[in-house]
Amino acid sequence: MNTINPASYWRKNHDWKNLLGKKGKVILSAESFVMVEIDSKNYEFTPASVNILKTGDPVICVLRRLTQTTPNGLIEYGISVKAIQPQP
Amino acid sequence: MKIKILAEYITKFGELWDKSLSDLLKEAATEVISKADIKPSEIEAVFVANMGSGILENQLHLGALVSSFFPHHPPAVRVEGACASGGLASVMAQQSLLSGRYKTVLVIGAEKMTDVSTSAATKFLSSAADYTREYGSTFPSLYALLTQAHMQKYGTTRDMLSAVSVKNHRHAMKNIKAQFHRELTINDVNNSEVIANPIRLLDCSPISDGAAAIILTTKQTNSPEIVSYGHASDSLTLADRKSLSSLQATKDAISQCMSNTKIKLNDIQMAEVHDCFSVNEILAIEDLGFFKKGHGGEATLSEQTTYGGKIVINPSGGLKACGHPVGATGVKQLAFISNLIRQDEINVGLTHNVGGSGATVIVHLLSK
Amino acid sequence: MLKNKNIGIVSYGAYLPRLLIKTGEIANANNSVNFGVPLGIESKTVPDSDEDVATISVEAASQAIDRLNKFDKNQIQALFIGSESHPYAVKPTGTIVSAALGLGNELAMADLQFACKAGTQALQICLSYIKSGMAKYGLAIGADTAQSRPGDALEYSASAGGAAYIVGAKNVMVSLLGTLSVATDTPDFWRRPGQPYPEHAGRFSGDPAYFHHTKLATAMILDRLNLSPKEFNYCLFHTPNGKFPKAIASNLGFSEEQMKYSLLVNKIGNLYAGSTMVGLVNILDHAKNNDKILMISYGSGAGSDAFVWQCASDFEEKRRKFQNPVEEQICQNYISYSKYKKLTTNEN
User: Fold this and answer.
1) What are the residues of chain A with a beta carbon less than 8 Å away from any beta carbon of chain B?
2) Residue C179 and residue C68 in one domain
3) Chain B partners of A46 at a C-beta cutoff of 8 Å?
């Protein structure tokens, strides 16, 4: 189990708002790790659980717990991606 | 000024319970000096290649550790470039010789990876990626993306990837220092456990212990020569690469290397390339220029990269079958090719050592 | 009692985890009778391994914010989140939510706990911040990843999900006609610090607890606003199961038609602090202009929050572009009990 250090967590959380809600497309998927194009730039993510993403899937950035944590450690949140549900 | 390899030595690679990191370094240093038939005091400086001793053993300052094996305590430095640490240490050593500061130096690489759990070792290896922008990645998952890209662009098949491991295991049967002495079939690899789709267990180089050493000199000697080298970098993260179906740093490094010599690519008879995962051998043989882009898989499957084919790739068994003690690999590649030249099995050979997912590449050209 | 027609809900959002488990599956695994049947619960939501109250809150709040056109998030100056399963005992869930949403620094914030009424209490507090002028907009969230002891009756109902409301005094789509709260010391359900699961008092949770407080709060607010049950288009009572809210509604003179959209509990279980909050979302997803809604939450320990809402005359127009209504978030991803156990042990 990991315990992120507070300073590292705090530097990373400044970036969450820049990606949350942004939409993109999966360009490569190794299932446990994906490369996504968002606004013509490439990013790498661990997909949100439940999702098996394939190349070409439209995705949206969401906040998720990124790692298992110890009972007393800081919880590491971060940006992940999930499939966009098809709209009627 | 010519740079020659006075002697070379490789320890056994594998899960070496009775050997500590220090034991491995000592064995390699002692044996290579003995093979060179020189006095220890002739070593003027030491370049130690290692990636993980700080994380895995809580031991840094390896330069000082190796220096203390010598009664005269030569000046020493540790060099780190992830899995390209060995190649990089050789580059640093050559530059010290070319500057004229030294005439004879020791390049030694070692890694002790099996004292920790597999998950701790995997976590340590992932420190070669961009910790912030590739967070949550493991090396298999990054190379899985590269494999996907190659399969999508060129139609590289599962069998082609498996053919890399099959060939390298067959080559390792003749290498007594190799970690594995077990032949594989295409089906064995195809049916092994999925690690990160589409990478399977038998596509992956193992976690290994081991060391290798070479003595480089500018003194006159009838020994294999390092004719030229190339050293190139690319972005640390895959997301920033211009192409995901090619390693640009390999292309840049081979271009640099071959621009300094009259030797042609076709003269190269054998090459030790960085097959940390099957796809990386296919990428290497294409990006080094041995085969056309997109044809590396087919060439491997049709046995163009083994004895009787166009060129022998990874005669030692490569990282996959010989083993991959990270800091030792680049030095082992040089030692293996140098020994083939010394034994008159070949005249010209190449080594290709990669750090991270292709952020650092070092290529060496060796000849008689 | 807060009485004001000029403040209310400006936008809303909800989030339900995509995994569910059938109560029949729980019964089979426990080798017991299916308590889901008498409780009126067929299935319940299960949070995935990377989800918790913080991530659920961000999802719900993101939906609420995205539904507004050109909304300046810096104007949210109050953020209160109610839950029984905050990720931290000390460090508000709101801190994580505000960082993810990119809210401004001027922000009143605290975590609330009052069992299943913590979310509606958060909503009432935000409304009072608006009324007092201390905040231009408030964000109130009720969310939970409820825990239950394996084999206990609560295992058939405790589920996960949440809803978020942006409240303000401008561009109001649902006006607050009035709100009040009641609270007493009634020990029907509690959890001591460090304990993974709550304790409950069985049948004592009925008459002296749920029914008493719900009836009390309902009677008080109808009296203060001089309203009778038949004047409402919809009513919503807290749904710890599918049985209690029907019983109280009938007892108080509300019809099945008025209850129509308040029984998502059948499919999603009891979302605890998210329960009434998500229930209101479902009503709003179906309501029409000028509809009047009675909302009564209940929190064990115990207390009730009462709200009377009225949809604006242009409510339907304001809601027209809203996508992904909460009913459509109920997926068919049923999991096995062994997967459920893996996901729900070591929670928080």
Assistant:
1) 12, 28-35, 41-46, 55, 66-67, 78
2) no
3) 135-137
